[in-house]
Write a structure and sequence with these properties.
alpha+beta; Butyryl-Coa Dehydrogenase, subunit A, domain 1; Butyryl-CoA Dehydrogenase, subunit A, domain 2; Butyryl-CoA Dehydrogenase, subunit A, domain 3; 3 domains; two-stranded antiparallel ribbon; 11 helices; oxidoreductase
Length: 393
């Protein structure tokens, strides 16, 4: 039995990476069509789900693999290296499905996750910012609202949404059937085009109180110590892995271009200038990965000891994510500069450049979060604490 007070490190991790690698050719062959369609083909989505990508983020006592934070980072990194859109889709679903399973109690768990190990479970997509309105009624809430960026909604059975309780201002998160919301098919972005990150809305839908939880909770109803980092820091795990994987793929693509172009007439990749820039990009990405893993190693030790995270640890989680994201962008700029016309033609380089440009706009890596990290680290906000992505007195 898993000790819920300790950090769970899954023995399934090496096999998971092998299963992801086995899908590499299929992911690549279907990427262009998925972009045109706007979401992953059902076959590859099902293959990824069957591989256990979402299950990796779910509590062990419900049948999940419950990977540790660093295992989750490496899992999303590996998938995103093969396909950034598939990585983002599964990262988003893994996050909101896993946290829903962790933070909802027995009634909701029995309803939504009766047989995780056998694949009998809800799959969630949705958004946790810009909360909807929740009017208290007997047994629950009447929920109305409009939410954005529901990555993976094409493959979901249920939605995850933030709500604010009328009268108290309390922020909660709900799980409700996808059939109870209106989908707004408006996803048309530069990159991450196959993530189906559409908007959705509803009006006066009854949601049982049992299917909501306090958005700020760090006390899981299911699973072990990992879920004590809270909802926002759980999101940082997947986004960190995604940025590192997408950045790594671009350097891999650049290396493949060097093998093709080197020795040709006026090849830019044969210049000392390129060699220096490529080395610098490689060093930056490896450093960003090493630091992110060091931050999470420290967090894992704290969780395993049963201790609460410090404000500094929460700050470094957010800062290392921001750094990984911006580093992936910088790597992309180097590749774009030296890849020549390959960077402007349809193919992996073009696709990953667009995906990174879009993914870097996510709220978890925005400039205000970086400013808040600097405020605390510099001592200007030394008495503050984190509430979601805000530094508050």
């Amino acid at each position: 039995m898993t000790d819920p007070a300790r950090l769970h490190v899954s023995p399934e991790f090496p096999a998971m990476l092998d299963r992801i690698d086995a899908l590499a050719d299929q992911l690549e062959s279907e990427a262009a069509v998925a972009e045109e369609r706007g979401f992953l083909a059902e076959g590859i989505a099902r293959a990824l789900l069957d591989a256990g990508i979402v299950r990796a983020g779910m509590p062990a006592n419900l049948g999940g693999h419950e990977f540790s934070p660093r295992q989750l980072i490496a899992t999303i990194e590996r998938l995103s290296r093969h396909d950034a859109t598939a990585g983002w889709t599964m990262m988003a679903m893994q996050h909101v499905t896993g946290t829903t399973a962790a933070y909802l109690g027995d009634v909701a768990a029995a309803d939504l996750f009766p047989g995780v190990a056998a694949g009998d479970q809800a799959l969630l997509a949705g958004h946790g910012t810009r909360p909807g309105r929740a009017v208290p009624v007997d047994g629950g809430f009447l929920v109305s609202g409009s939410w954005q960026f529901a990555s993976g909604m094409a493959h979901a059975t249920h939605v995850h949404s933030a709500i604010q309780v009328e009268g108290t201002g309390e922020l909660r998160v709900l799980a409700m059937p996808k059939s109870q919301v209106e989908l707004v098919d408006n996803w048309d972005a530069l990159g991450l085009r196959a993530t189906h990150s559409i908007d959705y809305r509803c009006t006066d839908v009854h949601v049982p109180a049992t299917h909501t939880y306090l958005a700020t909770t760090t006390t899981p109803a299911n699973g072990g110590a990992m879920y004590r980092v809270g909802l926002v820091n759980m999101a940082a795990i997947g986004h960190t892995g995604w940025a590192l994987g997408a950045g790594r793929r671009l350097l891999d693509e650049m290396r493949a271009l060097v093998a093709i172009k080197s020795g040709t007439h006026n090849a830019a990749v044969d210049t000392a200038h390129f060699h220096a820039e490529f080395a610098a990009a490689e060093a930056k990405l490896r450093s960003a990965r090493a630091w992110a893993m060091d931050v999470w190693r420290d967090v894992e030790e704290t969780l395993d000891a049963g201790e609460p995270l410090s404000v500094e640890q929460g700050t470094l989680i957010k800062l290392s994510l921001n750094h990984a994201t911006r580093t992936a962008q910088e790597v992309g700029q180097v590749v774009h500069r030296w890849a020549g016309t390959t960077a402007i033609r349809r193919g992996p380089v073009d696709r990953f450049l667009r995906d990174i440009a879009t993914g870097a706009q996510h709220i978890t890596s925005n400039p205000v979060v970086l400013q808040n990290c600097g405020k605390w680290l510099s001592g200007a906000g030394s008495q503050a604490r984190w509430e979601f992505l805000d530094l508050v007195p």
